[in-house]
Design the sequence.
């Protein structure tokens, strides 16, 4: 029991990431409101970002700026590469959200609604 | 024989009508010029094909490889005896048909003649390509072009009936095409080559299951085009096309392309020796024998003249298939000769049917009472060709049938000898009532007199004369017997 | 100079994208001109690069001269060169199509339309060149972002289909990123060649297996491989014709390229085909997709929608070749990428041109068009025959290699699927050919606007039709020179 709890607490961040992924996926595929779909998409992508950040962390390491006191031992610093990648990925994510919002504006102008069912109904006419 | 001036002859023979297509379309608005192009191309094609005859009889085979279609498989042409028989047939009859179709199309006032003549010329390119292909992939390329190029001809009239026939035609022939493609791909897998070689290219290691699969793929694939029962029903439907199309394509080029494919597959890819070793020929003989009898019986029931001719074609194509399946030198000689002879005789019959349609506007046999008195030359030619198909000497059909029967006896296959003889009776049975009606019954009162237009009559008489000549003297001009015999000897080789 | 070619191709496109963007706000007509010049430049660079690759082997460009595996790398090898030729060549011809019928936008309106198109092409070239996994993701998202915008230009329903496409494609992209994370944390590198070297020791690691599965699933989503194709028919049929052609011809094909790249140069066939059944799954999904795409295409009456479903079937041919994972199968898949790019572009442009000229979108209204538009319909016939796979068109030869590949793998089911699909394709294309050339009275719509398409509309269509034939005749040259080095490792 103790071991399981220890295991869980050690991996709890990964569990949270999986939970976030599932919430995001549900938001995108399960929700009928288009804005909620976009929110789901953001949650989903954020979960992936967190996964990268978590992977870059090390016990007892510090931010990747060379400090004369810590020396140049790689193990003493967090891995900076995932952070850089995620910065780029965030840019991509923001761009997607922006395009999605623009599309939503357009859809709202055409159909006067952001509920998928209502839009489908009005499209059918 | 690569890299001599001769090696360009097969290429020229294929391309001449393809080039003509361009000019036919260009001169679409000037019918006389357009038809001149067709005639010039047809004459040129015949001259080119004929010019190779002496070379091939000499045992030299003009060949050319243009470029690769697939690694190790080129777009290659090679003229051998079997191919030359088919090419001579197609190009000689194209010239005759060109005159005839000009008369027919103008006589019946058909529309869209440019499309008609252009498609026709393209079909002939494909047919000669099929005849001269040096490997299966080149063969398939022309074979599919032929399928597609014939489609506008079948649907030429544009009536719902014609469109329906066109659909049926495509469904049957494209299905056959894909099955054939599977066979070709599998051949490549098994043999590592697609080249045609007399006696086949199968390696010694080939197993019974591989061979059986290949054999069935080829038999079914080509069976569609050669209208072997039960894959035949597109052919009677396709008779809705204008008569020159039925005549040249559905008695000569298209269906014979299927039969010729079987010649290539059995004789030059799988090899009779290999097939005989595994006892696979029996199926082919049985299917062909069945078709011969069944098609003849069905022919009795057709009142439409062209439909009766179509069923007769189905039966005669299976003569050829039967001859191929005998795996004897005489059987092969007979089969290859029958490709030519049947083409000449059947085209005569179709020409007559078309002449009757255009001149007297009659399509059904029951209406033909007394037509012979009105169109004595046409019906005279009809009688000669019908006698030939029934196997009566001295018309061409007798010669090929003689060899076919001799082929069955060579391996003591008496059943098939009986089938062939019986079918001769059937042929007589379904053709002679027509002749009887035409000459000996009283004409209906509405029948006014008049022979067919000269542009149609002359081709009819030429074709009928050719059937007689080939019956009396089989080596006349085209050395048909020599070609067929030499091809058969190479293919059958030791086991004949 | 030649060593900079890999990077110059996407850079030239993206640089001009900004330029045309500014120009587009003023006058769309000028920006089209610049876009055509930019893609012509990219195409010539691609040709130059290809010849260099053929003669001297692959080119590599390291950004900022950082050595591998630390730095970012662009690799121009035979496979990339082949893709670049397809992308820039097809793109160049597509851009020649006039703006109004092509994008359904008035030429006078000021929008940065061509900037987005160039961005799309630049992104696609980046995908073809990227030498590391993360840059591939960035370029993948650049192309996706531009296509969301382009799809939404279309008719009223386009916005909604674009949004759905955005959601599905973003899931695909995110899956890919997640997979890259797994691979990165297992191997510590993103460079493809480096990953390939390090992987053999990690074949049994669950993280690597998970990473591969996520990457392949994500890319299959973007590639619209059955059963992940649901977004495609709407997006492709509501998009403007040229955009639809871009999507069908090069964009989803680029995703197929990614899977081939993963199979050959990242995960190795050993891992993806033999240790995991990944390629088998792709192959069988594709086999189902070929049949279902074709059957659905038969059920459509809208021409563009029929083409969209046909794309589902055709991209699955590529999937089938990948699934075979043998040299002939991959050769067939790659050749089909090229063939499909040409014939589907031709068909979409015809759909656009005919709709522009006569307003016809329904295939029943195509009847009698053969006489009114002989050239257009001749081009249509050539492409349709290629889609069916009649020799000597390009479509036949890709099918031929796929057939040989299926036999090589002893997979008769795939063989049967390819042949069955030939028949299904014949059904829905000959149905149309029959209508087009039947002598029936033309429909009201086409009667109102008789006559051939204008030369500017017709030229790209004819170029594509001719290329469909030319590629058929030179297929062996392409296979022997460009594709055989690619499949050597299999």
Sequence:
């Amino acid at each position: 029991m103790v071991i399981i709890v220890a295991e869980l607490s050690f991996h709890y961040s990964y569990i949270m990431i999986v939970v976030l992924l599932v919430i995001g996926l549900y938001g995108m595929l399960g929700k009928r409101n288009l804005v909620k779909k976009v929110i789901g998409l953001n949650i989903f992508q954020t979960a992936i970002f967190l996964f990268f950040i978590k992977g870059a962390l090390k016990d007892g390491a510090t931010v990747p700026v060379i400090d004369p006191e810590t020396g140049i031992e790689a193990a003493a610093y967090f891995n900076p590469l995932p952070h850089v990648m995620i910065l780029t990925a965030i840019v991509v994510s923001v761009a997607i959200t922006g395009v999605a919002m623009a599309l939503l504006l357009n859809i709202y102008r055409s159909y006067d609604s952001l509920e998928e069912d209502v839009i489908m109904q009005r499209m059918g006419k | 024989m690569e890299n001599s001036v001769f090696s360009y002859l097969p290429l020229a023979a294929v391309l001449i009508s393809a080039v003509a297509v361009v000019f036919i379309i260009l001169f679409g608005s000037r019918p006389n010029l357009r038809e001149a192009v067709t005639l010039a191309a047809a004459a040129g094609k015949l001259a080119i094909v004929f010019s190779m005859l002496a070379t091939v009889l000499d045992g030299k085979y003009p060949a050319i490889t243009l470029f690769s279609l697939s690694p190790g498989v080129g777009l290659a042409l090679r003229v051998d005896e079997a191919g030359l028989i088919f090419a001579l047939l197609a190009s000689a009859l194209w010239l005759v048909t060109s005159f005839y179709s000009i008369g027919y199309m103008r006589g019946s006032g058909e529309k869209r003649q440019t499309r008609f003549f252009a498609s026709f010329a393209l079909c002939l390119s494909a047919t000669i390509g099929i005849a001269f292909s040096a490997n299966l992939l080149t063969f398939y390329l022309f074979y599919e072009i032929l399928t597609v190029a014939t489609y506008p001809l079948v649907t030429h009239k544009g009536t719902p009936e014609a469109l329906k026939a066109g659909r049926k035609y495509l469904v049957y022939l494209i299905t056959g095409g894909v099955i054939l493609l599977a066979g070709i791909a599998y051949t490549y897998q098994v043999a590592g080559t697609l080249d045609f070689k007399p006696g086949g290219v199968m390696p010694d290691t080939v197993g019974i299951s591989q061979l059986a699969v290949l054999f069935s793929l080829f038999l079914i694939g080509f069976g569609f085009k050669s209208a072997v029962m039960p894959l035949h029903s597109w052919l009677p439907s396709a008779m809705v096309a204008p008569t020159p199309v039925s005549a040249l394509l559905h008695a000569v080029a298209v269906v014979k392309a299927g039969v010729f494919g079987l010649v290539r597959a059995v004789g030059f890819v799988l090899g009779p020796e290999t097939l005989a070793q595994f006892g696979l020929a029996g199926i082919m003989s049985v299917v062909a024998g069945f078709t011969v009898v069944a098609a003849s019986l069905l022919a009795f029931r057709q009142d439409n003249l062209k439909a009766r001719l179509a069923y007769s074609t189905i039966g005669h194509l299976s003569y050829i298939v039967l001859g191929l399946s005998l795996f004897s030198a005489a059987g092969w000689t007979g089969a290859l000769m029958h490709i030519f002879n049947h083409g000449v005789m059947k085209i005569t019959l179709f020409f007559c049917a078309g002449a009757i349609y255009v001149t007297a506007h009659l399509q059904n046999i029951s209406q033909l009472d007394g037509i012979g008195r009105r169109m004595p030359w046409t019906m005279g030619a009809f009688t000669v060709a019908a006698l030939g198909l029934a196997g009566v000497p001295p018309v061409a059909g007798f010669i090929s049938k003689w060899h076919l029967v001799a082929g069955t006896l060579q391996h003591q296959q008496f059943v098939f000898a009986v089938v062939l003889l019986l079918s001769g009776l059937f042929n007589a049975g379904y053709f002679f009532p027509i002749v009887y009606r035409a000459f000996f019954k009283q004409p209906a009162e509405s029948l006014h007199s008049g022979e067919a237009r000269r542009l149609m009559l002359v081709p009819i008489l030429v074709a009928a004369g050719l059937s007689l000549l080939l019956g009396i003297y089989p080596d006349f001009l085209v050395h048909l017997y020599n070609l067929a015999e030499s091809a058969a000897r190479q293919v059958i080789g030791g086991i004949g | 100079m030649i060593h900079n070619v890999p990077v110059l191709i996407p850079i030239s496109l993206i640089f001009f994208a900004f330029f045309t963007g500014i120009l587009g706000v003023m006058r769309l007509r000028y920006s089209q001109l610049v876009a055509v010049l930019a893609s012509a430049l990219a195409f010539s660079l691609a040709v130059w690069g290809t010849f260099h690759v053929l003669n001297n082997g692959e080119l590599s460009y390291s950004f900022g001269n950082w050595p591998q595996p630390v730095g970012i790398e662009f690799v121009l090898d035979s496979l990339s060169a082949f893709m670049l030729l397809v992308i820039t060549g097809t793109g160049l011809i597509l851009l020649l199509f006039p703006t109004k019928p092509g994008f359904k936008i008035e030429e006078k309106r000021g929008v940065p339309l061509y900037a987005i198109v160039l961005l799309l092409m630049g992104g696609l070239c980046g995908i073809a060149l990227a030498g590391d996994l993360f840059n591939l993701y960035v370029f993948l998202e650049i192309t996706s972002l531009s296509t969301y915008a382009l799809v939404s230009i279309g008719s009223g329903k386009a916005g909604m289909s674009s949004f759905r496409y955005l959601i599905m494609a973003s899931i695909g992209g995110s899956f890919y990123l997640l997979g890259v994370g797994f691979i990165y944390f297992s191997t510590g590198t993103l460079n493809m060649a480096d990953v390939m070297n390090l992987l053999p020791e990690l074949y049994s690691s669950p993280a690597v297996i998970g990473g591969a599965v996520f990457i392949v699933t994500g890319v299959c989503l973007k590639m619209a491989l059955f059963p992940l194709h649901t977004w495609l028919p709407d997006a492709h049929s509501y998009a403007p014709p040229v955009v639809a052609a871009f999507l069908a011809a090069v964009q989803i094909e680029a995703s197929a390229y990614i899977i081939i790249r993963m199979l050959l140069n990242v995960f190795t066939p050993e891992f993806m085909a033999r240790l995991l059944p990944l390629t088998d799954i792709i192959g069988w999904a594709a086999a189902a997709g070929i049949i279902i795409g074709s059957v659905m295409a038969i059920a459509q009456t809208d021409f563009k929608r029929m083409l969209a479903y046909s794309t589902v079937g055709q991209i699955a041919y590529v999937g089938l070749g990948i699934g075979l994972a043998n040299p002939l199968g991959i050769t067939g898949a790659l050749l089909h990428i090229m063939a499909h790019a040409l014939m589907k572009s031709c068909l979409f442009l015809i759909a656009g041109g005919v709709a522009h000229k006569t307003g016809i979108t329904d295939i029943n209204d195509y009847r009698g068009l053969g006489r009114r538009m002989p050239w257009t319909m001749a081009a249509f016939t050539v492409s349709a025959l290629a889609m069916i796979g009649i020799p000597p068109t390009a479509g036949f030869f890709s099918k031929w290699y796929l057939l040989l590949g299926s036999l090589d793998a002893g997979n008769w089911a795939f063989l049967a699927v390819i042949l069955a699909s030939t028949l299904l394709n014949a059904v829905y294309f000959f149905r149309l050919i029959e209508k087009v050339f039947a002598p029936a009275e033309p429909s009201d719509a086409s009667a109102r606007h008789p006559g051939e398409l204008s030369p500017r509309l017709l030229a790209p269509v004819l170029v594509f039709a001719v290329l469909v034939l030319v590629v058929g005749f030179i297929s062996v040259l392409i296979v022997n020179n460009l594709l055989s080095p690619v499949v050597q490792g299999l």
About this structure: The CA atoms of residues 123 and 185 of chain C lie 26 Å apart. Chain C has one domain: 2-489. The beta strands of chain C are 59-62, 73-76. The longest strand of chain C covers residues 59-62.
